[in-house]
């Protein structure tokens, strides 16, 4: 494996109290795992935060996936938040199973020429070129895993590309459009939230009624 | 209450096998409830599908909310998917508790001048002007409600505004920008996924390695 051991210098650590914000707006994520030296990677459209402190996230991982076998064996997974430049990568790793190559031959990182760096605590592969990353421990919840394919995880390390996520906030601007997140509509079509607006309080008419 | 009983004529039923697509891309939703004639409404940034068939969704509802009291009492809730024109409405109902007015005085629909129609099966209030709607039964999962504030629900009826969601797909275009969904970044700032792109399969280099 050609992984880097250190956190790449251009990335910024994300305070754990802000980690859930990385997926607050519903982006598609990449789920990566490693078991006995064999890495895997898939796309997951279905995830959401469930808590800010401690940072906890729910993610849906189908029973048919090789990723799920690896998670069940290791109790860990990493989430990388891909960006516009990675739409093809995200679609591809969501279409192709890593099981065929499990334990022999090239893994999905190698097959598709993807770079990775290794998370410092849990030594999970994080995908280069993404805009947010989290290394996570799975909270054992056998029933929800079985009944809803839903895994609750706790984030123990988080990083971002500070050009698009800094001080606990996403900043989607015209000058960083290539780094905006992907939101899966279905069939490989992604929506990209380039436009933003600030909600304001409506006047309370209660006193008039 | 000034609710309509029938489904508004300009809305389209969504096949239940496509209902989860309404929230596939991570929009903020409005959660509405009714108990003994008293309605309530809140915003929830955290939801995700967990299954297409049957259509099941997970949504996070904090213990402090009046909505949660109503859900626990009735076992039902409705989800409305708000659009760009409703950013202020969405921010406002997420900031203000309905508990103060519970059982007496105007509810949040009345206080903020919001129209509603009544879902045909469970008789829940659905918010006018939204772009997607689902009436849902809560699946009793006491542990995940307690430990993660996470409610798993099954969708039993779904509708969309066909100008932006038809044949099971969102279609975000320049001519329907006002109807695009809201994705909460934090502090009342919403991202809006107006731009879309189609992911394509990357070449598999596995054979070359």
Can you give a write-up of this model?
Chain A is α+β, with helices and mostly antiparallel strands and 209 residues long. The first copy, chain A, has helices spanning 66-74, 87-95, 108-111, 142-148, and strands at 12-13, 29-35, 38-44, 47-51, 56-60, 76-81, 116-118, 125-127, 132-138, 150-160, 165-166, 169-170, 183-186, 189-192, 195-198. In chain A, a hairpin with a 2-residue loop joins strand 13 and strand 14. The relative contact order of chain A is 0.22. Chains A and B meet through strand 4, strand 5, helix 2, helix 4 and strand 12 of A and strand 4, strand 5, helix 2, helix 4 and strand 12 of B.
Describe how the helices and strands are arranged.
Two copies of one chain form a homodimer.
Chain A: E1 12-13, E2 29-35, E3 38-44, E4 47-51, E5 56-60, H1 66-74, E6 76-81, H2 87-95, H3 108-111, E7 116-118, E8 125-127, E9 132-138, H4 142-148, E10 150-160, E11 165-166, E12 169-170, E13 183-186, E14 189-192, E15 195-198
Antiparallel strand pairs in A: 1-10, 2-3, 2-6, 4-5, 5-10, 6-9, 7-8, 9-10, 11-12, 13-14
